[in-house]
Specification:
Blueprint: H1 3-27, E1 43-45, H2 52-69, E2 72-78, H3 86-97, E3 103-109, E4 114-118, H4 127-143, H5 147-165, H6 169-234, H7 239-242, H8 256-281
Parallel strand pairs: 1-2, 2-3
Antiparallel strand pairs: 3-4
Amino acid sequence: MSLPNRVARWTSWVVLSVLFAGAALVGAPTGTAEAPLRMDTYVVDSAQALNGGQLDQVRSAVDQLYADQQVRLWVVYVRDFGGLGPEVWAQRTASQSGFGDRDLLLAVATQDRSYWFYGELPSGVSDSKLNSLLTRDVEPALRDGRWADAGVATADGLKSAMRGGGVNVGFLLVIGVLVVLVVGGFVLFARKRRRDRAKAELAVARGGPGQHRRAGRTSAGGAARALAGGACRDRQCDPHQRRGIGAGDRRVRHDRRAALQHGARSCENGCLQSLLDQAATR
């Protein structure tokens, strides 16, 4: 084989080797691609986007959320989602991690500056509240590269939303105590009024008959005297005739005025006694 032919063949082999190597490099996945993973801790920083202090801040916010509301928030930082969409990547990671109803995931791709929030919304957090939290606090932090602030804002925002929309047990206890006090006070007041009314009625019942009897005797005495006076008038009772004292009888030496007064009293007493005897006979 001539020298030019051997050189041409060697050159062609080199070119083919370079082409195959380039094709292999282009077709192979890059080292920065992050496949869905299994979360073994609440905050994972595969992208090394956080320093030590920032990592502690995110962990502290996540722990406080769980302490207050018993909701587990998982935060993962990766360089990218390995060619998958953010939602698919987050779903696969949650599935591999065995998340339940009270597990939430915030997945952040630092190179793509994309993210996904995955999980069932807890009580007190509506879709509108979550959308407001993400657009107002989380997305601006991701856009500015403040990765730790995005995680902290997510944990704090969920905690605030659940406090505002959920049921506050302490508040319900205070309301319950106030209701019991008001109802109890009303019942005691009603019972006291009934006792006072019963005492008043008992006092009237005890004192009333004696008063009626006294009033009756007074009225009877007045009526008897009135009848006696009327009877004396009807009979034209003359004190002089009843006592046998005549104007011309010189045997009586008493003063005429005294005799008239004594006779009038005797006539009234006699008529009153007569009426009382008749009433007793009836």
